[in-house]
Each structure stands twice: as structure tokens, then as C-alpha cells.
Amino acid sequence: MVLSLSAPAAPDTPTCAPVVTSEHSLPLEDGSEWSGCPTAAGELRGREPVLAMTVRARPVPHEFGPADVAERVWVRAAALQPAALVAVSSADGGVGRSTLVAALGGVLALAVPDPVIAVDMNPVPWGGLDERIGRSNAGTVWDAVRDLHTLTSRREIDRWAQHGLSGLLALVGETEGRGRRPPRHDEAAAVVEAVRRVYPLTICDVMPALITGVWRTLAAAHAPVLVARATTDSLRHTMRLVAHLRAAGYGAVADRSVLAVVASSPDIDRAVRAVVQQATTVVPAVVPIPFDAQLARPEPIDVRRLRKPTRHALVQLADAVIQRCADPRAELPVGAVKERA
């Protein structure tokens, strides 16, 4: 049986007099409070006015930039759509997918005011998020599968979760035997459905997109992310996957997907750069992630300690992802300068 994930229905847009604020309110101890609206005063989106919203955002850590992009990410991260879901997959294995989930999740965990959780959906007892998050207890996603009926609160889920160095929570993959095993895709999907009911943002580390169950998970996500190595073969396989998704009726996934191109060496061949450029005509957002020796090591990731170019690239990736997950009313007011930590 394949259990598909269901994307939450979009809430009705309230009607009110549009309000636009160009300056932020008094600073808060743990961030800034913003009031803003993406439309100009008196302008209507369609035929209905759009309700302004107040956003309580965390301060941007000084390690992250570019400043304008990071500010936008942190503001949008404080106004997510309900049960926001990011699904990370790939055309091939061995492309650094779990590493990217841990790194991207670390940035989002710093940006989102409430806890962010990652779920390892890989059906194999090796690799996955285990090495990239670290272990503080024996809990894994298998415990969540076994106790699925109890996953009704953060407290029940947290007892099986690992805590990353940047604050990301994770239900890591199962690597032991003796009555324990990695979950099937449908079992992991059921855990994701339970988790996203109680956390504002869930990130799924999904197996390569070789089965329709993975395609359905990508379709249920607000932000489907595809990961490719910075090689001509990996990029071309990814573009073929996107074309196949369109042909199979999953054009909406292709239309909102984000492609992260992960470099495995400091130098990128000219032919690879050409294929990356070609990929921009197939995928709406393409974000290159430069080589970073810390990402290449099999150890827990603290995104604040990565190289500056890597941090900037991850912020660009987070910007593309959070744009798809955030309430469209959450925008940085024109002329406002956000507080930085």
C-alpha cells in the first residue's frame, strides 16, 4: 500500500481594509515585530482587499547573508502556511541529499520561531540523517512508526527526536536490526502526516524519486526540492526526472520545484556550468551549493560554522524554499531595516 500525503487546503483570505506599514514596531527581546502587506495601500489583490498581518520574527544571526535575502527569509519564516512541508528528493542516490536536508534544515531552524523537524524517510539502514544530525538518544523514525497513535503532541514526538547543532530536530533513520527496521515509504508518510500536525515546518529526506509514492509526497509538499551533484550526468538525470513528472501528470511539482546543485569539488567544469544554465530553463529555481569540506565530512553539521560562500548559498536556497511555504502576506516592508543578532 502507498499512503499519499495530503497538502492542506488554503485558508480563505479574510476581507478588510488593506494596511501597509513601512516601518517595524518596537524591537522585541527575541526579534522584531513587523506589520506589512505585499500590496500597496488601497490596492486590491484580485477583487478582494488583503488583510495585513503582524509577524514576530527572530533576529538574523550575523553569520548569514546576503543581508537583504536573509532578512526576507527570517520574516517569511515567521509567517508559515499551516502544516508547511518541504520534501527533498533526487533522481539518483549518492548526491548529498541527506547532507542538504541537514544544512537547509539548520538554516530554517534558526529562522523559524518555533521548532522545525526533519523526518528521514529513506527505507535503507545506512546513510541518511543520522551522521549529519548526531545522536543524543536511541530514538529513530522506527520508534515513531511503532508508536504512531501516540504522536499527538510535540512532547510525544520529541522523545524520539535527535537535536542538531543548529536547533533542527530530526527523526533519524533506523540502522539497527533485531526487531527494528527502516520504515516503508507508506509508514514514513504516516509519521510525516502526524508530525506536521504539531510542528510549523517539516522537512522530509525522501528516497530517490523512482516510485509514484515519492512523486505523491513531492506533490503534497509546499516546496519540492530536488538535489543533484554538479556533474553533467546527475543534472541531466534530474532534468529527465522533471520531464517525466510533467508527462505523468505531476506538472505542478515541476512548476514549483527547487533544484539544489551540490558541488563535490572546488572547481566546476565548464560543461557542468553549461548544463546548470540549461537546467534554469526546466526548473523554476536553481541554487548552486559550493564545495565545502565540512559538508564532505560524515559528522553533525552546524551551519553557522560553514564557509561564508556556503552559508550565503544556503540562505539563497532557504529563500526559494520559504517563499513557497510562507503566507504571501508576509513581506519585508519597504524601507525597513531588520535587527541583526
Automatic annotation (TrEMBL):
Entry GO MF terms: ATP binding; ATP hydrolysis activity
Entry's Gene Ontology BP terms: negative regulation of cell division
Transmembrane segments: none
SUPFAM superfamilies for the chain: P-loop containing nucleoside triphosphate hydrolases (SSF52540)
Record Gene3D superfamilies: P-loop containing nucleotide triphosphate hydrolases
InterPro entries: P-loop_NTPase, ParA/MinD_ATPase
GO CC field: cytoplasmic side of plasma membrane; cytosol
Full protein name: MinD-like ATPase involved in chromosome partitioning or flagellar assembly
